[in-house]
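Reply to dn_fold:

You asked what the input looked like. This is it:
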Amino acid sequence: MTVQIRPAVLDDLALIRRLRLQRSSWLAARGSDQWSTRAAGLSIDYFARAVSRAVAAWETWIAEVDGEPAATITINDRADRELWTSAELADALIVHYLIVDFRFAGYGVGQRLLAHAAALARAHGRRWVRLDAWTANTDLHAYYRRAGFRLVRVAAPRDPSPSCALFERHVDDWLLEGGPISTPAGFPMTQLARDPIVLPVSG
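and this is what came back:
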């Protein structure tokens, strides 16, 4: 199996929307309110607009397994400032919208995308990969713990948010595991979210 990670393009928006709907339906069938509008989750239309902006800014990535799109992630340096402090945001890249197609569940594709986030963080001089997870989804919390993240805190913003479980992992942790964390030699560094950093991963 070969996993390659590439920047998303506008033609991928239908795929990303489908992955979100697939995951939302699966969660709802199991009694979870994650991403439901009744629990203040993003509507699918709002989600699609947000991802469209992220794609245009080179912040969204697609993992392909043997050439077939299998998962997506958005990585940037922005988050709700009521969740993370300014200092925490200044030293991290933030993971959003990590979604794996069920056909590729269990193959470690999500782990590869998280390692890619760490590679981008290191390339941009950031020491942490951080994310917020749905507060009530303890299965999701367990997934991130298995991926090496630790729970920092459950935030309590002034405006209630359904996604307040804050997790982080230091980029050096991937190095200790021998993960794919380096950029190609001589790769030109530019301002964050301008030119994509392409890091194919094989395994």
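The mean pLDDT is 84.
Hope that clears it up.
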